[in-house]
UniProtKB/TrEMBL annotation:
Residues 230-396 form the Glycosyl transferase family domain. This is Glycosyltransferase family 4 protein. It comes from the Bacteria. SUPFAM superfamilies: UDP-Glycosyltransferase/glycogen phosphorylase. InterPro entries: Glyco_trans_1.
Length: 423
């Protein structure tokens, strides 16, 4: 069985990581041959093929990205939400690409930023091959936003969009909703939510009425992301061995929805209310971050920068006493999965798919949404209650039972075979 996985990037963002991990998991634990087709390739992964294989085509990649942003510019409410809404107007036709033509199954992942337009997706569906689309956010079933928050207009036909400068009953979110509706009919795809939360939202969407919708998590290699001695990890990273190390990680640390301000305020509260504990606290931060942002944190901070070496990432998770993810919108974060796999408990808000991962006061702490006080309490609770390593043990067990490669690969293989059987 040949499967072509389609994602905008092979390296940037959670969807790229999840897509690559799924291809590897299926290769290791099934007879499925998988290729990854991307807009622009940045890794040395031999399974990845790029459509931008010349310098001219690479320039077109950038041009499409800019064009997609410019087409939204007249409508955007503010620059803070510039990348939270994609119209899906600009893209390329990959329906005739050899990997697509030779595939038994077409498996879409995250395809925005000028890679696939709504029209491009329509052409893929028209091929008549079984199409699986793993959702990493809500974009496939909204009028353009990646996460709607409390807005439920996607359950009807969108419109009155909160991301727009001039929302209205017939704004671009509704127009783009109808474009997707036209593209998805009559050739349905099978939708897969990485979390049960996202699958439930997909089922409530008017765009996907009558579609088959499954829930299958992302996989992780439990032999790579695994526990090692905390002392050893810290020594290799030249970190103190006698402190509580609190970890924050994000591709862009100060991205609006990553909740860095909540992290900062929770730390300030922790320091003020528990001076006896805070004397032994230092911070780890990895990801793209401006120096002045990190300098505002109330504890000594070890800046690890952008990490691309998996060994360094594993060492960082193992070095940490607790991982804190105050994201305001999430599906099924790879970061929590990675932290758990390394035996490091996590603290996060009760939002999206996070409650499916963090079991309150078992393998971590589930804080009240947008509550600085609850976030601070969660950090304190983990630091004070994991002295015997029992919370760490349960964190690792969650990954072994739900996200191990063989478990997820089996679920997808079963899905693929059922689609081919019913073709």
């Amino acid at each position: 069985m040949n499967v072509v996985f389609i994602n905008t990037s092979d390296s940037s963002g959670g969807a790229a990581i999840a897509c690559s991990r799924l291809q590897k998991a299926l290769e290791k634990h099934s007879s499925i041959k998988g290729d990854i087709l991307v807009q622009e390739k940045k890794t040395e992964n031999p399974a990845v093929t790029t459509i931008a294989n010349t310098s001219l085509k690479k320039q077109f990649v950038w041009a499409r990205f800019i064009a997609e942003r410019l087409l939204f510019l007249p409508y955007e409410r503010s620059k803070e939400i510039r990348f939270l809404f994609n119209r899906g107007i600009v893209g390329v036709d990959i329906s005739k690409h050899p990997l697509v033509q030779n595939a038994d199954i077409i498996h879409l992942h995250w395809v925005n930023f000028g890679f696939l337009s709504t029209g491009s997706i329509k052409k893929l569906l028209a091929l008549g091959k079984p199409v699986v689309w793993t959702f990493h956010d809500m974009w496939p079933f909204t009028g353009g936003c990646h996460h709607s928050g409390e807005c439920e207009n996607y359950q009807i036909e969108c419109g009155n969009c909160k991301f727009l400068k001039n929302p209205g009953g017939n704004d671009i979110s509704r127009k783009d909703w109808f474009s997707k509706n036209s593209a998805y009919q009559p050739n349905h795809f099978t939708a897969v939510g990485c979390s049960q939360w996202l699958s439930k939202r997909a089922r409530n969407s008017s765009l996907l009425n009558g579609f088959k919708i499954e829930s299958i998590p992302n996989p992780i290699d439990i032999t790579v992301f695994s526990p090692i001695s905390k002392r050893e990890a810290r020594q290799q990273l030249n970190l103190p061995t006698d402190k509580h190390l609190i970890l924050f990680a994000a591709m862009r640390v100060n991205a609006l929805m990553k909740g860095f301000s909540y992290f900062q305020e929770a730390l300030i509260q922790l320091k003020n209310q528990h001076p006896e504990l805070s004397e032994n606290i230092e911070l780890l931060v990895f990801g793209q971050a401006e120096e002045e942002v990190l300098n505002q944190l109330p504890f000594k901070t070890h800046k690890l920068g952008h990490l691309s070496d998996v060994k360094q990432i594993v060492l960082s998770y193992n070095a940490a006493s607790v991982f804190v993810t105050p994201s305001l919108e999430e599906n099924l974060p790879n970061t929590i999965m990675e932290s758990f796999a390394c035996g490091t408990p996590a603290v996060g808000f009760n939002i999206g798919g996070i409650p499916e991962m963090i079991y309150h006061q078992q393998n971590g702490y589930l804080s009240e949404y947008k509550s600085v006080e609850s976030l601070a309490t969660g950090i304190q609770w983990v630091l004070e209650n994991n002295t015997d390593g029992e919370i760490s043990k349960k964190a690792r067990e969650k990954v072994l039972g739900s996200y191990a490669e063989n478990i997820v690969a089996s679920q997808y293989e079963t899905l693929y075979k059922s689609l081919l059987k019913n073709k």
